[in-house]
Design goal:
- Chain A: Pfam families: Aconitase.
- Chain A: Keywords: 4Fe-4S, Amino-acid biosynthesis, Branched-chain amino acid biosynthesis, Iron, Iron-sulfur, Leucine biosynthesis, Lyase, Metal-binding.
- Chain A: [4Fe-4S] cluster binds at residues 297, 357, 360.
- The complex is a heterodimer of chains A (418) and B (166).
- Chain A contains 14 helices and 18 strands.
- Chain A folds into two domains: 23-260, Aconitase, domain 3; 270-410, Aconitase, domain 3, CATH 3.30.499.
- Chain A is 31% helix and 19% strand.
- By secondary structure, chain A is an alpha/beta fold.
- Chain A is globular.
- Chain B contains eight helices and seven strands, in the order βααααβαβαββββαα.
- In chain B, helix 5 packs across helix 6 (90-99).
- The longest helix of chain B is centred in the middle third of the chain and has 10 residues, at 90-99.
- Chain B is an alpha/beta fold and 166 residues long.
- The chains are: A alpha/beta (418), B alpha/beta (166).
- At the A-B interface, helix 2, helix 3, helix 5 and strand 7 of A face helix 2, helix 6 and helix 8 of B.
- The structure holds iron/sulfur cluster (SF4).
- Iron/sulfur cluster binds at residues 65, 99-101, 120, 122, 296-297, 357, 360-361, 378-379 of chain A.
C-alpha cells in the first residue's frame, strides 16, 4: 500500500514503517522560535533545569512579531532571547530581517524532506518546498532544544487536487480562501494536506507558500506540495546542503481526496470574523474600508509586492485609507526598492513598515480604530486580531487589497490588471 | 485523575486570540497579568466570573489559531482547571496537556452554563452532576496521559528526561 509524503518523512526519521495514528519520537531537522513564543520556551527550559542545548546550529530564533520593540517590557523579552542565544550559540534573526517563516525558507535553511518544528502555528508554510513542518508550543520548543526530539502522531493526509487554470486577477490566496470555505476552519484537523494538480504546478514557490501557510486555518498539521524541478532549482539557489526529495507514492492512501476545478474561480474575500466566512468578490464590492494591509507570512513576498506596485503605479490611495506594507523579508524589501515598487507604492500614498509581522497580530504599527473595516493579505481575521475588537478584518489577495486601497471600498482587482 | 467543577459555556471555534489576545501576550511572561484578560474579546467580565477549579465547555475546534502556549497557561492562571469541547485544534490540545490543563473531548450539547461536572480521565467519562448524564471521552495517547499525570511537560521531563521512558 502506498504512502503519503507525511508518512514517508516520518518513516525516514523513525527508521521503521509507520502508519497514520502511530506515535513516534523522532529527531527534528530544525526548531524555530519567534519573539512571542521563545521567552516562554526559555522559561520552561530553565524550569526543567536545562543545562545544554542539543544542536544549537539547528535552532533559530527570530525577532519579528513585535519588532522593533514598542515597549520596554518587550525589549526585555527580546534581550532574554538574545542572551540565551548567545550563551548557547543559537542563531538570531534580528529586528528587520523579516518574518520567521519567510527566513526559514528563503535563507536556504529548510530543504525538501526536512522535519521542522516551530513555536508558531504557521510553521506549516515550509511544506511549500516539500518539508514536513508544524507548529508546536513553547514548552515543547524547550524540550526540543534540550533533546533534539519530539513526539508526533503520524497524521492521515488529505489530497487536494487543483485542476484547470487560474484566470487573470485570481491568485493562490483566492484558491486557499475558497478551500477554507469548502473545508471550514476545522475541516482538516490533525491531517496533513497535500496540494496536487496543474494549478499548483504552475504556481511559483512563493505562491505555493501562500497555500501551505494557510493549511493551519483549516486545522491541518501540515500543508505540503510535492517538490518538482521548480522547487529543486529554488532550493539549490539558496543552499548547498544536500537533500533528498520525498514524493508521495502514486498509490498513496488518503483519508479524503478533494478535486477542485479552479477555472471559474473569481477573487475571494473572507468576511469578519472567520477565515472560512468566504464569499466571492462580487458580494463584497463597495464595503467601505479605512485600512489596507499588505504583508505577512501569507502574502508579503516578491510576487505580492509586485502586483501591488503594478496596480498602484500612477494611482493614488483613497484619502480615507491607510495602506500599510510590511515586506516579508529584508531581501524582499531590497528587490522592491531596486525594481521601483517602493516608489510606486509610497508615491501612491502607502506606508512601509519594517520587514516582519507588521500589524498582523495587533501589537503595533497599524492598530485599526473603532468601527474600522480593514482589508488585509494576512491569514487570520479573528475579532481583535489586529489589536482592536471594535474593528472588522476582511482577508483577500494582495491585488484585491491594492484595488480596494485605491477605491476606499472593497474592489475587484481584475479591472486594474487588464 | 478526577476533578469536579462548574462550567462556563462557549460556542464553536474559540480561537487562541480570544483566549488571550496577541496584544497582551507579547508583553509579559506574567501569567497572573495575562489571566486578567482571558476571553476578554468574547466576554469582558469573564476573568472576574471564574472561581478556581471551574471548567469551560465549548463547541467544536476549541483553541484554533496561533500556537501560543500562553492560551492554556492564562486559562490555568485565571482558575480554569479544564476545557471540555466537541473537538480541539491540535496545537492547543498539545499545549494544554503540556501545561497540565485538562482537555476533554465530549458531547458538550449535554452541558449548560453553570452545570456542575466531574471529569474522570482514568475512566474516560464526564458526568454532568446537574443533569445526571454521563458522557464518554475518547482515550488519550499514553504519552499524553503520562504528561498530564505529572502535571505537565516540565515536571514530566524533570522526572524522565526524555519521551522514551520505560
Ligand atoms: S506574519 Fe502574522 S501570521 Fe505570520 S508569523 Fe507573523 S504574526 Fe504570525
Amino acid at each position: 500500500m502506498g504512502k503519503t509524503m507525511a508518512e514517508k518523512i516520518f518513516e525516514k526519521k523513525a527508521g521503521k514503517p509507520v502508519r497514520p495514528g502511530d506515535i513516534v519520537v523522532v529527531p527534528v531537522d530544525w526548531a524555530m522560535g519567534q519573539d512571542g513564543t521563545t521567552p516562554l520556551a526559555i522559561q520552561s527550559f530553565e524550569e526543567m533545569n536545562g543545562k545544554t542545548v542539543f544542536c544549537p546550529e539547528r535552532i533559530v530564533f527570530v525577532i519579528d512579531h513585535n519588532a522593533p520593540s514598542p515597549l520596554e517590557s518587550v525589549s526585555r523579552l527580546h534581550d532574554l532571547m538574545r542572551s540565551f542565544a548567545q550563551r548557547f550559540g543559537i542563531r538570531v534573526f534580528e529586528v528587520g530581517e523579516g518574518v520567521c517563516h519567510e527566513l526559514m525558507m528563503s535563507r536556504g535553511l529548510v530543504v525538501p524532506g526536512d522535519l521542522v518544528v516551530g513555536a508558531d502555528s504557521h510553521t506549516c508554510t515550509y511544506g511549500a518546498i516539500g518539508a514536513f513542518s508544524t507548529g508546536i508550543g513553547s514548552t515543547e520548543l524547550a524540550v526540543v532544544m534540550m533533546t533534539g526530539k519530539l513526539w508526533f502522531k503520524v497524521p492521515e493526509s488529505l489530497c487536494i487536487r487543483l485542476s484547470g487554470e487560474l484566470s487573470p486577477g485570481v491568485f493562490a490566496k483566492d484558491v486557499i480562501l475558497h478551500i477554507a470555505a469548502l473545508l471550514g476552519a476545522d475541516g482538516a484537523t490533525y491531517q496533513a494536506i497535500e496540494f496536487h494538480g496543474p494549478v499548483v504546478e504552475c504556481l511559483s514557490v512563493e505562491e505555493r507558500a501562500t497555500l501551505t501557510n494557510m493549511a493551519v486555518e483549516v486545522g491541518a498539521k501540515a500543508g505540503m506540495v510535492p517538490p518538482d524541478e521548480k522547487t529543486i532549482r529554488w532550493v539549490k539557489e539558496r543552499t548547498d546542503r544536500p537533500f533528498e526529495v520525498v514524493l508521495p507514492d502514486p498509490d498513496a492512501v488518503y483519508a479524503r481526496t478533494l478535486d477542485i476545478d479552479c477555472s471559474g474561480l473569481i477573487p475571494q474575500v473572507a468576511f469578519p470574523h472567520r477565515v472560512d466566512n468566504v464569499r466571492p468578490i462580487t458580494e463584497a464590492l463597495g464595503i467601505p474600508i479605512r485600512e489596507a494591509f499588505v504583508g505577512t507570512c501569507t502574502n508579503g513576498r516578491i510576487p505580492d509586492l509586485e502586483v501591488v506596485a503594478r496596480i498602484l503605479r500612477g494611482r493614488k490611495v483613497h484619502p480615507e485609507v491607510r495602506l500599510i506594507v510590511a515586506p516579508a523579508s529584508k531581501e524582499t524589501f531590497l528587490v522592491a526598492l531596486e525594481r521601483g515598487w517602493v516608489r510606486d507604492i509610497v508615491e501612491a500614498g502607502g506606508v512601509f513598515v519594517p520587514p516582519g509581522c507588521g500589524p498582523c497580530v495587533g501589537t503595533h504599527q497599524g492598530i485599526p480604530g473603532d468601527g474600522w473595516n480593514v482589508i488585509s493579505t494576512a491569514n487570520r481575521n479573528f475579532r481583535g486580531r489586529m489589536g482592536n475588537r471594535e474593528a472588522s478584518i476582511y482577508l483577500a489577495s494582495p491585488a484585491t487589497v491594492a484595488a480596494s486601497a485605491i477605491e476606499g471600498k472593497i474592489a475587484d482587482p481584475r479591472k486594474y490588471l487588464g | 485523575m478526577r476533578l469536579t467543577g462548574r462550567v462556563h459555556k462557549f460556542g464553536d471555534d474559540v480561537n487562541t486570540d480570544y483566549i488571550i489576545s496577541g496584544k497582551y501576550k507579547f508583553k509579559t511572561l506574567d501569567m497572573q497579568e495575562l489571566a486578567k484578560h482571558v476571553m476578554e474579546d468574547l466576554d469582558p467580565e469573564f476573568a472576574q466570573k471564574v472561581r478556581p477549579g471551574d471548567f469551560i465547555a465549548a463547541g467544536k475546534n476549541f483553541g484554533c489559531g496561533s500556537s501560543r502556549e500562553q492560551a492554556p497557561r492564562a486559562l490555568l492562571a485565571c482558575g480554569i482547571r479544564g476545557v471540555l469541547a466537541k473537538s480541539f485544534a491540535r496545537i492547543f490540545f498539545r499545549n494544554a496537556i503540556n501545561c497540565g490543563l485538562f482537555v476533554v473531548e465530549c458531547d458538550t450539547d449535554k452541558i449548560e452554563n453553570g452545570d456542575e461536572v466531574t471529569v474522570d480521565l482514568e475512566k474516560g467519562e464526564v458526568v454532568n452532576l446537574t443533569r445526571g448524564v454521563t458522557l464518554s471521552v475518547p482515550p488519550l495517547p499514553q504519552v499524553m496521559i503520562d504528561i498530564l499525570r505529572e502535571g505537565g511537560l516540565v515536571n514530566y521531563f524533570k522526572k524522565y528526561g526524555s519521551f522514551e521512558k520505560a
